[in-house]
C-alpha cells in the first residue's frame, strides 16, 4: 500500500488524483490532504478518505505542506504557484517520491530540484512530460530532440488582429482539456508551452534548442522523442489527466483505463509549426536562457499577475509578452548578482509580482 500525500487536493489535478486513488484502493491510500482555502471541499474529502493529516494553507501557512508529507511514500504536488517549493526539496531530501504536476516549481528552481535526485524519484504528471518519460523508457539511444505537442488553445485559428479583444470567458474555453483557470489561460497565450520547455529541459537534461514545440490540435499525441538514428517514439491516448496521474503513481499497474483512441472515427492527426509571431509568449521558454536563473522566477511571477489581471478584465490578451519581458529586463542585473536559492526565489517572486502589478496599473513610467 502506497501512502499518498495530496497537495492541492481541491483543484483539477487534486480531485482527479483522488479519483485514481479511489480506483486503486488495493494499492494506494490517502495519507494527507492539503488545500489552500476551500474548506468545504476539503472537509468532504476528509470524510471520504479519512487521511492521517489535513490542512488549509491559508490557515496554517505553507509549513503544513511539510507536515503533510511526513510519513508518506509519495507526494502529489498539485498546488498552484511556488508555494510547494520547500516541500518538494524536503521530500527529495528525505526519500519521499514526488509526483509533480506543478510546473512553476521546476521553472523557478529546476537546478535546486534536480540536484536533489538520488534518495527519491521524481515523476512528471504534466501530460507532455509524462509522455516523454514513457517514450524514453526502454530506449537507450541518444536523444536528438523532444517534440513537445501543444493543442494551440482556443485562439489558434482566429486572426492575429482579433487577439487584442478576446475575453477571459473565451480564453477559459479550452478545446480539449478541462483544467484550473490559470493553466487554461496559459494554454490560450501559449505561455504554458514556455513553462513546459523549461520543465522539460530540467526533467530530461536537454537544451531548450533540442525541444521543439509542435502544434497538434487533436491532443491525442501527448509528445514525442526523436532519437539520433531518426526513430521517433510517441505516446498516444485520449486527453484524460488521470492517465498521467496513474502512470506517475503506479506505472502500468493501475486499474484505471482511459477511453480508447478511436482510430476509425479519428479522421486526421495534424501537426503544425508554432506561430511565434502570433503567440510570442511561446518564445519565452527559449529566450529566457539569455538571462540569469532568477529571471525565470520573474518570468513566472509576472505571468501569474498578467493572468490574474486578464481574468479581472484589466489587461488585454496581447499585452502579456511585453509586460513579462519588461519585468525580466527590469530585474536582470539584480538577478545576475543574486544566488539561486529558495530565499531569493521567494523574494524575486514577490518583487516581480509587485512590479508587474504596478506596471499594469500604470504606476510606473
Ligand atoms: P487548480 O486551480 O484547479 O487547483 C489548485 C490547487 O492549489 C487547489 O487545491 C487550490 O486550493 C490550491 N491553491 C490555490 N492557491 C494556492 C496557493 N497560493 N498556494 C498553494 N496552493 C494553492 O489548478 P490545477 O489543478 O489546474 O493545477 C495545479 C498545478 O498543476 C499547476 O501548477 C498547473 O500548472 C499544473 N498542471 C495542471 C494540469 C491540469 O490539467 N489541470 C495539467 C498539467 C499541469 P483551493 O481549492 O483551496 O483554492
Ligand atoms: Mg501540459
State the strand order across the main sheet.
Answer: 3-2-1-4-5-6
Summarize model confidence as the mean pLDDT: 97
What's the structural domain tally?
A: 3
Give me the Rg, rounded: 20 Å
Biggest pleated sheet: 6 strands, parallel
Instruction: Report helical residue fraction.
Output: 40-55%
Bound molecules: NADPH dihydro-nicotinamide-adenine-dinucleotide phosphate, magnesium ion
Distance between the termini: 58 Å
Q: Report the portion of residues in β strands.
A: 15-25%
Structural class: alpha/beta
Describe this structure as you would to a colleague.
- By secondary structure, the protein is an alpha/beta fold.
- It has three domains: 124 residues, Rossmann fold; 163 residues, no CATH class; 75 residues, Orthogonal Bundle (Rna Polymerase Sigma Factor, Chain: A).
- Helix content is 44%, strand content 15%.
- The chain contains 15 helices and eleven strands.
- The strands form two sheets. Strands 3-2-1-4-5-6 form a six-stranded parallel beta sheet, sandwiched between helices. It has a five-stranded mixed beta sheet with strand order 10-9-7-8-11, covered by helices on one side.
- Helix 6 packs antiparallel against helix 13.
- The longest helix is centred in the last third of the chain and has 19 residues.
- NADPH dihydro-nicotinamide-adenine-dinucleotide phosphate binds next to helix 1, helix 6 and helix 9.
